[in-house]
Design brief:
Largest sheet: 4 strands, mixed
Number of strands: 29
Radius of gyration: 73 Å
Number of helices: 10
Shape: rod-shaped
Distance between the termini: 181 Å
Number of domains: 6
Oligomer: single chain
Bound molecules: calcium ion
Strand order of the largest sheet: 14-18-17-16
Strand content: 25-35%
Length: 529
């Protein structure tokens, strides 16, 4: 089987050699006739028993050589096209060692432009370079962009440009990247509204003036803004100084957060006079910057204020606590304090020396606040010392307690006295003064008339006038003031020392109109003291 196939192969091989070998110089008909001649020769030798050494293994031609039999049973060897003899060549060695010719190296090969020569066994090939494809005998550039063989980013974001042998990718405007991957560069931007820098006064509310996000219409990513306000500007400007509010714009793409814009606003907080700053309408401000309490003075600081306690007050836990005892005051101030139990006109009133002073304004207990105002203090009579000898005298021990619990004690000597004629009599005194002035005029007239003839008449009229005036005064006092005195006594009013003296002096003057003033004063002193 194998042998048969080999023979068949040799014969067909031989026939093809004849066709190939003569195709360049002879016409097809000529070579066919030659082939027929050989075939006839061959059959002749076969039938004439001439051995054909080109058949089988009877020749030593190289496998890449042709075996050509001759007429006398010999043969010659010839290297096939694309092979050449190596070593010394004569007729005995020709065709015995045929080696492939490297046409690429010898320059025998001519390849078209944009192709590379590749040596093959017995021949050569021209391979089109990358980016080119064969069209007939030529290598032509492939238009990768037109044929979709490129790896550029999609046409919406990138531009593909064909080149000879290759192509280029480039991102479109508004995108960045190598052309194979293009990122959108048209990012949103941020602008601030309002003043920058912004000037505020201490405890002004921080007015976020706002911002604008300028987002391109073709920007599909999610955008978020983060505003960072320093704690000193939280709601209110809490402290003087320079601050910075930052606005950061982030883009969220595929779950990734990227900062795309950042701006800052400078804020300057200036001092303000907090002692006079009216915050009464804002409860939140009142809590942040309370007014100083009534026991403290507001003192301006470089940036803020301090509540400094007044003298007598102590700062405890930020509050000024009252450490100043209250005051006990007598109205009027007397020592001893005199209480009158008996009034004129036979009406008497008994005074209990062990009871607290309540007559008139009497005794007062109060705190004097820093602003000068008074705050009532609790007053109590702790004890009473009674004079064992004089049952009209006593000493009261008072205790005053202010709201903070500070205590003040004061001992007050008490004396109970009788009698009261007071201001009713003072009214009559006024009348006396009036009369006295008129008497003076009378005297002057008398002195003048002593030199005239009517002296006796004048003296008479003086005496009569005097008597009439005295009677009038007596009447006016007894009738006109009696009612008033009664009302006064019943209303339990309290007389003073001076009331006593005036009353006595008038009383004595009424009944001793001709006494000199010095005598009246002496008598009043004797009676009163
Ligand atoms: Ca070759
Ligand atoms: Ca190309
Ligand atoms: Ca006090």
């Amino acid at each position: 089987m194998h042998l048969q196939a080999w023979f068949r192969g040799r014969w067909s091989f031989l026939l093809s050699w004849y066709v190939n070998e003569h195709i360049r110089t002879h016409s097809l008909t000529h070579s066919l006739s030659l082939s027929l001649i050989h075939s006839r020769t061959h059959s002749l030798t076969r039938f004439g028993f001439i051995e054909n050494k080109c058949e089988g293994f009877k020749n030593d031609c190289h496998q890449n050589a042709y075996c050509i039999p001759d007429e006398v049973g010999g043969y010659t060897c010839r290297c096939r096209t694309g092979y050449e003899d190596v070593g010394e060549v004569d007729e005995s060695t020709r065709g015995r060692n045929c080696v492939d010719i490297d046409e690429c190296a010898t320059g025998a090969a001519t390849c078209p432009e944009h192709s590379t020569c590749r040596n093959t066994d017995g021949s050569f090939e021209c391979d089109c370079n990358a980016g080119f494809e064969r069209q007939g005998a030529l290598c032509i550039d492939i238009d990768e962009c037109a044929t979709g063989k490129d790896d550029c980013a999609p046409r919406e974001v990138a531009i593909c440009t064909n080149t000879i042998g290759s192509y280029t990718c480039k991102c479109k405007e508004g995108y960045e990247g190598d052309g194979r991957e293009c990122r959108d560069t048209s990012k949103p931007t941020l602008t601030l509204r309002g003043d920058n820098p912004l000037r505020l006064e201490l405890f002004d509310p921080f007015p976020e003036p706002g911002y604008n996000i300028n987002e391109p219409t073709n920007h599909p990513e999610e955008v978020r803004l983060q505003v960072q306000v320093p704690p000193q500007l939280d709601t209110y400007a809490l402290a003087c100084g320079d601050y910075s509010v930052s606005y950061t714009l982030y883009e969220y793409r595929d779950g990734k957060k990227t900062e795309i814009d950042f701006v800052t606003r400078s804020v300057t907080v200036m001092r303000r006079d907090l002692c006079t700053f009216d915050r009464s309408s804002d409860p939140e401000l009142l809590q942040l910057i309370p007014y100083c309490d009534k026991f403290a003075k507001c003192v301006e600081l470089e940036c803020g204020y301090d509540c400094v306690c007044y003298e007598g007050y102590e700062k405890i836990d930020g509050k000024c606590v009252d450490r100043k005892p209250p005051v006990i005051e007598l109205q009027p101030e007397q020592d001893p304090y005199v209480l009158y139990e008996c009034r004129v006109c036979h009406i008497t009133e008994t005074i209990d020396r062990t009871k607290p002073i309540t007559l008139g304004e009497g005794i007062l207990a109060y705190d004097v606040l820093p602003d000068g105002s008074r705050e009532p203090a609790k007053l109590e009579l702790e004890s009473v010392d009674l004079d064992p000898v004089d049952n009209k005298r006593a000493v009261h021990h008072y205790k005053a307690t202010d709201l903070a619990g500070n205590i003040y004690r004061r001992a007050v000597a008490i004396e109970v006295r009788s009698e009261d004629v007071r201001e009713k009599i003072a009214k009559v005194e006024q009348m006396w003064n009036f009369l006295n002035e008129n008497f003076a005029e009378f005297r002057e007239k008398v002195d003048a008339d002593q030199r005239s003839t009517s002296r006796i008449a004048t003296i008479t009229s003086y005496i009569v006038g005097t008597i009439a005036l005295v009677l009038f005064v007596q009447f006016a006092f007894l009738v006109g003031t009696k009612t008033t005195l009664l009302i006064k006594v019943l209303s339990a009013d309290r007389p003073a020392w001076s009331d006593f003296e005036e009353a006595w002096s008038f009383w004595l003057r009424v009944f001793h109109p001709l006494w000199p003033s010095a005598d009246i004063t002496a008598e009043v002193f004797r009676k009163v003291h």
